[in-house]
Design goal:
Blueprint: E1 2-6, H1 11-22, E2 26-31, H2 38-44, E3 48-51, E4 64-67, H3 76-84, E5 88-90, H4 91-100, E6 104-109, H5 114-127, E7 133-135, E8 147-148, E9 154-158, E10 163-165, E11 168-171, E12 180-183, H6 197-209, E13 216-220, H7 223-230, E14 236-242, E15 253-256, E16 264-269, E17 272-278, H8 284-299, H9 304-312, E18 322-327, E19 330-335, H10 340-354, E20 358-363, H11 368-371, H12 376-382, E21 388-392, H13 402-406, E22 412-415, H14 418-428, E23 433-438, H15 446-461
Parallel strand pairs: 1-2, 1-4, 2-3, 4-5, 6-9, 6-12, 7-9, 12-13, 13-14, 14-15, 19-23, 20-21, 20-23, 21-22
Antiparallel strand pairs: 7-8, 10-11, 15-16, 16-17, 18-19
InterPro entries: Mpl (IPR005757), Mur-like_cat_sf (IPR036565), Mur_ligase_C (IPR004101), Mur_ligase_C_dom_sf (IPR036615), Mur_ligase_cen (IPR013221), Mur_ligase_N (IPR000713), MurCDEF_pg_biosynth (IPR050061)
Pfam family, one: Mur_ligase_C
GO molecular function: ATP binding; UDP-N-acetylmuramate-L-alanyl-gamma-D-glutamyl-meso-2,6-diaminoheptanedioate ligase activity
Length: about 450
């Protein structure tokens, strides 16, 4: 079958494309923006990529068109599909129909940490010899790909609450029908499609309704998640948390004796310490991610001891505090953070690890929610863990970052073109500096430009 995917370079759609190729289909696709790491994966899989949405790409007509949720009415390719009467579906529906039926689905949901937790869970199952299939919105370093069919009934899927398609406004995750479900956390996000937090919680309640009675929900102890479960729950629930400041342990699963930077922690299950993790990751957010993954893995028979050993060898995920280079004592990281909570957690984790070293954050407020200014009052404080923040003011954003700079607890500046941002960061960086680039997009290729200028600076200095 020839499948053509509109919006193929999104993390979900690109991963789905790789599964379709592995199943033997001929896959082509198009997108407005084509950039690594997804474009690299797709080209390696032999998938033809087309820049833009010219309707001519639909000639000759494919057998099926899969339409990504970033596309809407008015898009030239979408209009051509409708006018020609071509068969079409959503990515989430096709995943359900062709890959998830009859399998034990382990779904990872929540506002933050979905990609990392899904990657941890898939790696734990892999180390347990289960050879799981998976579809993840990022590239786990241990696997080098974001999706695979797998050789067992087990399938790990990153479960996103964003809507399915222009013709299906339900959250994507209601299609997945998990037997094991992680709800990692819950905050207001996606302001372009949800009016408030209650609207998001309602979608999570719909997800909870799909978990069978003999399934398991692994949930954080956050009030926002508890409110979802109180709307109705028909499955066993196991909660997880880090040890509270007063020493009281909360939840079935608890992280105890946690190192200040999160690089090691013990695991307590219902009061008994069962394992300890010593890994390369940092931050309390990753400790919570690891706990959730261990709890979900236990549901399919993996012991905490084996899970801990797997996490010890977990290498992280591309674009999640991925160290791209070290040039003349300056470390450059790429991070996907696009929400104040994620920015704060990432910088806190790095600060705990590097101590007094200088941290420079380059941030692009790219997500729809950020561009709408929904979280503008939280952005300044979210960067308190850095020594300097360079904010990118993208063209077309209808509010100014000046107010964020004005209220920043640390020195902050605005730049409106990539060259200026690179120049500022390079001029202000010296040995022992950590530059963290934060964006959920390509950020105009700023990462490689930054590394190239640092190399150039080092060359001139020598």
């Amino acid at each position: 079958m020839h499948i053509h995917i509109l919006g193929i370079c999104g993390t979900f759609m690109g991963s789905l494309a790789q599964l379709a190729v592995a199943e033997g289909h001929r896959v082509t696709g198009c997108d407005a923006n084509v950039y690594p790491p997804m474009s690299t994966q797709l080209q390696r899989a032999g998938i033809q990529l087309i820049e833009g949405y010219d309707p001519a790409q639909l000639e000759p007509a494919p057998d099926l068109v899969i339409i990504g949720n970033a596309l809407s009415r008015g898009n030239a390719a979408v209009e051509a599909v409708l006018e020609k009467g071509l068969p079409y579906t959503s990515g989430a529906q096709w995943l359900c129909d062709h890959f998830l039926g009859g399998r034990w689905v382990l779904a990872v949901s929540g506002t933050h940490g979905k990609t990392t937790t899904s990657s941890m869970l898939a790696w734990i199952l892999e180390q347990a010899g289960m050879q799981p299939g998976f579809l993840i919105g990022g590239v786990p370093a241990n696997f080098g790909v974001s999706a695979r069919l797998g050789e067992s009934p087990f399938f790990v899927v990153e479960a996103d609450e964003y809507d399915t398609a222009f013709f299906d406004k339900r959250s994507k995750f209601v299609h997945y029908r998990p037997r094991t479900l992680i709800i990692n956390n819950l905050e207001f996000d996606h302001a372009d499609i949800f009016d408030n937090l209650a609207a998001i919680q309602r979608q999570f309640h719909h997800l909870v309704r799909t978990v069978p009675g003999n399934g398991l929900i692994v949930s954080s102890t956050e009030d926002t998640v508890e409110e979802v479960l109180r709307q109705g729950c028909w499955s066993e629930v196991q909660r997880f948390a880090t040890e509270s400041e007063n020493g009281v342990r909360l939840g079935d699963w608890c992280a105890v004796d946690v190192a200040a930077d999160g690089s090691s922690f013990g695991i307590s299950f219902r009061g008994a310490q069962v394992a300890r993790v010593e890994w390369t990751l940092t931050g309390l957010h990753n400790v919570r991610n690891g706990l959730a993954a261990m709890a979900a893995a236990r549901h399919v028979g993996v012991t905490p001891e084996l899970s801990a050993r797997a996490l010890n060898s977990f290498k992280g995920v591309k674009r999640r505090m991925e160290c791209l280079a070290e040039v003349g004592g300056v470390h450059v990281y790429d991070d996907f953070a696009h929400h104040p909570t994620a920015i704060e957690s990432t910088l806190k984790g790095l600060r705990a690890r590097v101590g007094e070293d200088r941290i420079i954050a380059l941030i692009e407020p790219r997500s729809n929610t950020m561009r709408m200014g929904v979280h503008r009052n939280k952005l300044a404080q979210s960067c308190a863990g850095a020594d300097l923040v360079l904010w990118y003011q993208p063209e077309g954003m209808d509010w100014s970052l000046a107010e964020v700079v004005q209220h920043s607890p640390v020195p902050a500046k605005i730049f409106d073109n990539i060259e200026a941002g690179v120049e500022s960061a390079v001029n202000l960086a010296g040995p022992g500096t950590h530059i963290v680039v934060m964006s959920n997009g390509g950020f105009g290729g700023i990462h490689q430009r930054l590394i190239a200028e640092l190399e150039n600076k080092r060359g001139h200095a020598s």
